[in-house]
From TrEMBL:
Class of the enzyme per the UniProt entry, highest EC level: hydrolase
Gene3D superfamilies tied to this protein: FomD-like
Function per UniProt: Has nucleoside phosphatase activity towards nucleoside triphosphates and nucleoside diphosphates.
Species annotation: Priestia taiwanensis
Chain sites annotated for binding Mg(2+) 2: D105, D107, D120, E123
Reaction(s) catalysed (UniProt annotation): a ribonucleoside 5'-diphosphate + H2O = a ribonucleoside 5'-phosphate + phosphate + H(+); a ribonucleoside 5'-triphosphate + H2O = a ribonucleoside 5'-diphosphate + phosphate + H(+)
A GO MF label: ribonucleoside triphosphate phosphatase activity
Start and end residues of each DUF402 domain: 18-156
UniProt name for this protein: Nucleoside triphosphate/diphosphate phosphatase
Record has Hydrolase as a keyword: yes
Keywords: Hydrolase, Magnesium, Metal-binding
Binding locations of Mg(2+) 1: N87, D103, D107
Amino acid sequence: MSFPQPGEKIQIHSYKHNGAIHRVWEETKVLKGTQNSLIGGNDRTLVIESDGRTWITREPAICYFDANNWFNVIGMLRQDGIHYYCNISSPFIFEDGALKYIDYDLDIKVYPDMTYTLLDEEEYERHRVLMDYPKELDVILKRNVDTLIQWIHQRKGPFAPDFIDTWYERFLTYRD
């Protein structure tokens, strides 16, 4: 499998457990891409929802995808600091010019002071039953919620001081 090179533009495709497309980000600039992780940046990129609705992101974001963990992290640079949106998801794959993952509904929103809120537990339970998630998957996903919370507390990975700022500076060198 070949991985995108720094500076290359890719799409990000989010799917649901049943294989249905959930959301597509039209353009993300690769800042680092290996078989274990991909870091990308985007700003005011077009997002297409599964129902055809579109919107444009409002602020620059640094995206962290990990091939060994069941989550991804988006650090959004806002006036009052870095806000994180974390998706509990399958590890990513890269194929056909797109980074792809399965979104499992559970999300964690992290504020600049590193407090956080777990979101969408009801949606997760509804989809878990509707799409018949195997028990093993439920265990993996809940364990990864715990891992993600540990990373937040430990300021590990994308939550490390200066991680987002450092990669944002790199992103700026690739701006068109």
